[in-house]
Design a protein that fits this description.
Layout lengths: L10 E7 L2 H7 L2 H8 L2 E7 L4 H9 L8 E5 L3 H6 L7 H4 L16 H8 E2 L12 E2 L2 E13 H6 L8 H15 L2 E4 L6 H11 L18 H16 L9 H9 L3 E7 L3 H4 L11 E5 L10 E7 L7 H11 L2 H9 L7 H4 L2 H6 L3 H7 L14 H17 L5 H18 L5
Parallel strand pairs: 1-2, 1-3, 7-8
Antiparallel strand pairs: 3-10, 4-5, 6-8, 6-9, 6-10
Length: about 425
């Protein structure tokens, strides 16, 4: 049975960000149309404008989007507002579902982190969890380092945070460039940078009863570590978003990078990188535990989609084994175990060996993806942490001062804290 025949001539509208993974994806779309007869219209926006536009579109009786890209932080909010559809009914429809799709081949931590809502804590796997999206542009955190600089000074990549902290000063003193690049801009960006250290140091934003604990010893230690990163890093970190942090490493202004695996696709591009053939990869250093980030982008079908079935066919095609491999060859981010282990791709991207190991420590609870997280992230933590990084407040004062505000946000959202 040709599952596409009924939809040939239809147009699927997909809303995507300006992002390397989705730039690679667009190169595949002509093949989808050739194979299925379904046309694809792209609405591409700066990633900072994505959510605002989606909330407007998904609030209409019928929206323009049949498929939409979302950041992991938005998944629970979108479900709580009844804006997106569960995917299980689509995959249970034998007229739509590809029997060779193999959902179990999708990297489990990515599927849980980006796709599931309604389970434990309302955003993890467990009883009640439903699949509302699929990872597409998912990432974890790894350490990239300049092996030429490390060899010059007979240094080794840090295995733990004690070694990591010492290396910051050593590299700054010996090499004169920034030790570690980092995000630091007020709002989401500086919170992301702090979370990179909070998790391995054993911290968490909330305790099991949803009371803020981000100002405990672990939270303060993570923020003090980030302050040291600013002191020893390239000038300007308190104003760096992800793009600026990446550029600092790519332009040779920092000896180390600790953030998303997505950087790998541009390190080897001489048009964008001055560190081609100078970079090696290592696991995110361990604190009291190993804990790398679990984050990134996914695709979902809006509740008010005009062509939801055709949207599912595009989603299914893009995330199939064949197309996951194809987008990865073009510099995209793999979402399947079969892609990560593909011999041809491992030869093309030897860093996949480290990335696959890093996924063992990727934490789906890296941040609390509750429906009010965006508000806490941007309006509270993102302000206080920025004040600590710019020297306006100590780490202790910054985090302690945020507890009443975050507690109030949680109470207004119905949490009994």
């Amino acid at each position: 049975q040709n599952r596409y025949a009924k939809y040939a001539g239809n147009t699927v509208t997909i809303n995507i960000p300006a992002h390397p993974h989705y730039d690679a994806m667009t190169k595949l779309l002509p093949e989808f149309t050739k194979e299925t007869g379904i046309k694809v219209e792209i609405d591409k926006l700066a990633i900072g404008r994505l959510k605002e536009k989606q909330l407007l579109e998904m609030a209409k009786p019928q929206g323009d989007y049949d498929l939409a890209c979302y950041i992991v932080m938005w998944k629970t909010e979108y479900v709580s507002k009844n804006l997106v559809q569960p995917l299980e009914p689509f995959f249970a429809n034998t007229a739509l579902a590809d029997p060779a799709y193999d959902m179990k081949d999708i990297i489990p931590i990515y599927l849980e982190n980006l796709g599931l809502v309604g389970g434990l804590k309302d955003y993890l796997a467990g009883p009640g969890a439903k699949l509302y999206g699929l990872p597409y542009g998912a990432e974890t955190s790894v350490l990239a380092y300049r092996r030429d600089i490390f060899a010059k000074h007979d240094l080794k990549p840090p295995e733990n945070y004690e070694q990591f902290g010492k290396l910051l000063r050593v590299l700054k003193d010996k090499e004169g460039i920034g030790a570690l690049t980092s995000r630091g801009q007020a709002g989401h960006q500086c919170v992301h940078a702090w979370l990179l250290h909070l998790n391995p140091l054993g911290g968490s934003v909330f305790d099991a009863q949803w009371k803020p604990r981000f100002n405990d010893a672990q939270g303060i230690a993570a923020l003090k570590f980030l302050q040291e990163v600013v002191a020893t890093g390239p000038a300007g970190i308190p104003g760096y978003g992800q793009g600026e942090a990446n550029t600092a490493f790519l332009q040779g202004q920092a000896a180390m990078y600790l953030d998303s695996t997505s950087l790998a696709s541009v390190i080897s591009d001489p048009a964008r990188s001055k560190v081609v053939d100078k970079v090696s990869w290592a696991l995110h250093p361990a604190g009291t535990r190993r804990a790398s980030q679990s984050r990134g982008l996914g695709l979902t079908i809006p509740k008010n989609a005009k062509n939801a079935d055709a949207g599912l066919l595009l989603l299914q095609w893009l995330t199939s084994k064949a197309q996951d491999k194809a987008v990865t060859k073009l510099g995209g981010a793999p979402m399947r175990n079969s892609t990560m282990g593909d011999a041809e791709l491992v030869r093309q991207y030897p860093e996949f060996i480290v990335f696959k190991e890093a996924l063992k420590y990727s934490n789906p609870d890296w941040r609390p993806i509750i429906s009010v997280w965006d508000k806490i992230n941007v309006q509270a933590l993102g302000v206080g942490i920025s004040e600590a990084l710019t020297g306006k407040k100590s780490a202790e004062d910054a985090l302690n001062g945020l507890v009443p505000q975050v507690t109030q946000i949680m109470r207004e959202a119905g949490y009994k804290v």
